[in-house]
């Protein structure tokens, strides 16, 4: 979904159930139908209506009220349901066409993801759960082992940043995936800290 905040508020809010429960429920007078909806949501948004807030080279022309209105279009419950938020800087003209010092590493990362998925398949060995994101609260206790420092780091972040129980559990699942990519059997503090970095940042207006 490109230009995510530009969708109607009711459309964005309608994503809450499928993102949380992996189903879509349609209620009509004659009954209710439930459809499976285990999706991967990828959304993009500008930092502000004019698109220049925080970027190099061009000043932002948005007023503080316009910035606040734009960012309020995404409610807290929707933001809680998106596991990873990444800020991507604008590519400068001289960087276009350059593959960087490491070149194209798509195959390298593809193999890392494939191995992590295989690890998860062995871990769960279940038709009910295929990957970390599908774990419930009880599954986290059974399948995820947190290093003591990792647990302290998570609790401290939850207290300082005001994580809801939903976000708290999602951070554990993201950290477990990061650990899988590093081929670590236990979730360590650095995995938790990286997962926390993927939470949305507060804007200063």
Reconstruct the topology from this structure.
Blueprint lengths: L8 H5 L2 H6 L1 E6 L2 E6 L27 H8 L4 H5 L25 H19 L12 H7 L4 H14 L3 H17 L7 H9 L8
Antiparallel strand pairs: 1-2
Helix pairs in contact: 7-9, 8-9
**Proportion of residues in extended strands:** 5-15%
Q: Outline the biggest β-sheet.
A: 2 strands, antiparallel
Shape type: globular
Oligomer: single chain
Question: Could you report the average pLDDT, rounded to the nearest whole number?
Answer: 89
Total E-strand runs: 2
CATH fold description of the largest domain: Helicase, Ruva Protein, domain 3
CATH architecture assignment name of the largest domain: Orthogonal Bundle
What radius of gyration results from the CA coordinates?
20 Å
Helix content: 40-55%
């Amino acid at each position: 979904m490109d230009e995510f905040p530009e969708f109607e508020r009711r459309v964005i809010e309608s994503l809450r159930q499928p993102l949380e429960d992996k189903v879509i429920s349609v209620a009509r007078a004659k009954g209710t139908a439930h459809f499976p909806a285990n999706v991967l949501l990828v959304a993009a948004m500008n930092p502000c209506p004019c698109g220049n807030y925080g970027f190099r080279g061009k000043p932002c022309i948005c007023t503080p009220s316009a910035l606040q209105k734009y960012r309020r279009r995404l409610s807290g419950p929707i933001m809680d349901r998106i596991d990873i938020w990444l800020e991507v800087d604008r590519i400068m003209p001289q960087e276009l066409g350059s593959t960087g010092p490491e070149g194209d590493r798509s195959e390298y990362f593809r193999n890392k993801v494939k191995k992590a998925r295989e690890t998860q398949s062995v871990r769960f060995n279940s038709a009910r759960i295929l990957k970390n994101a599908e774990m419930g609260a009880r599954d986290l206790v059974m399948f995820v082992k947190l290093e003591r420092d990792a647990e302290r780091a998570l609790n401290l972040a939850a207290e300082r940043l005001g994580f809801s129980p939903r976000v708290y559990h999602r951070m554990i699942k993201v950290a477990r995936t990061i650990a899988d990519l590093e081929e670590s059997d236990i979730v360590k503090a650095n995995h938790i800290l990286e997962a926390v970095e993927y939470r949305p940042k507060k804007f200063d207006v």
